[in-house]
């Protein structure tokens, strides 16, 4: 695996543009005075904030409003695109981070905005207005992985982050964390808004997206992420991402 590289941008700055980043590249925790959209024209990445992690494969874009601490990590060699939304225009968008599906129109707008050349004066300003309109709908909740605050719940989720293929029940994981199954089940609903099995499925899909982006087969990905057979993996992946693993991987090759 290529060596992980780290970078933390200067405080308050909001970079815009494009660049190829290596697998494992980590953009450390920072914040911007403006809003920012991040899109992978190829590859994929994760955006992490205090509210959790959003994974963005090549058919999603992440949104971070002004003033939110966040970081990014690339998975696979990534064509990283950064688009600034000026603070005065952010009132029309979500007040918290999120991830959105990328329509063909939105994709072309993001690619054009990260090219320093303008077809005519003011073209980028007008195109940003189109982007804001495209993001007026609800975000993709399925790719959001919330993170807990309670120490007992954090102990359980840390075990699964380290190895998403762990097959222990919540009761068995609770014995390691020093909490009962009933307590942990209540905490999952209260803090994360979902049950243990749903949270673990989304975590596994996050890891699966990384493996697929790196070129691993559907079968190898299913086994590595904790599914006992490819069919159950395909069903779970399709439910969360909205397309099969094979179609997602084929789409990466077409970009």
Automatic annotation (TrEMBL):
InterPro entries on file: Homeodomain-like_sf (IPR009057), HTH_AraC (IPR018060), RmlC-like_jellyroll (IPR014710), RmlC_Cupin_sf (IPR011051)
Region: Disordered, residue numbers: 1-20
Annotated ranges, domain HTH araC/xylS-type: 154-251
This protein's UniProt keywords: DNA-binding, Repressor, Transcription, Transcription regulation
Matches recorded under Pfam families: HTH_18
GO molecular function, one term: DNA-binding transcription factor activity
Coiled coil: none
Keyword Repressor: yes
Record's keyword annotation contains Lyase: no
Highest taxon above the source species: Bacteria
Signal sequence, start to end: none
SUPFAM superfamilies: Homeodomain-like, RmlC-like cupins
Transmembrane segments: none
Protein name: HTH-type transcriptional regulator RipA
């Amino acid at each position: 695996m290529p060596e992980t590289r780290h970078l933390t941008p200067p405080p308050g700055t909001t970079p815009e543009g494009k660049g190829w980043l290596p697998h494992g590249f980590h953009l450390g925790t920072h914040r911007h005075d403006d809003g920012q959209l991040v899109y992978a024209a190829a590859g994929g990445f994760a955006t992490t904030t205090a509210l959790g992690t959003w994974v963005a494969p090549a058919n999603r874009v992440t949104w971070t409003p002004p003033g939110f601490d966040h970081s990014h990590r690339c998975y696979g060699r990534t064509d990283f695109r950064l688009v600034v939304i000026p603070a005065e225009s952010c009132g029309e968008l979500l007040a918290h981070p999120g991830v959105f599906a990328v329509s063909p129109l939105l994709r072309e707008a993001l690619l054009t905005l990260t090219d320093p050349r303008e077809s005519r004066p003011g073209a980028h300003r007008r195109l940003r207005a189109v982007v804001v309109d495209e993001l007026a709908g609800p975000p993709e909740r399925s790719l959001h992985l919330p993170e807990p605050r309670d120490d007992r719940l954090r102990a359980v989720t840390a075990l699964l982050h380290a190895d998403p293929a762990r097959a222990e029940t919540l009761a068995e994981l609770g014995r390691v964390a020093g909490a009962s199954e009933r307590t942990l089940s209540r905490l999952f609903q209260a803090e994360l808004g979902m049950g243990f099995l749903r949270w673990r499925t989304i975590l596994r899909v996050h890891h699966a997206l990384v493996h697929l982006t790196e070129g691993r087969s559907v079968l190898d990905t299913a086994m590595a992420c904790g599914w006992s057979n490819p069919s159950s993996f395909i069903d779970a992946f399709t439910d969360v991402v909205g397309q099969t693993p094979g179609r997602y991987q084929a789409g990466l090759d077409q970009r």
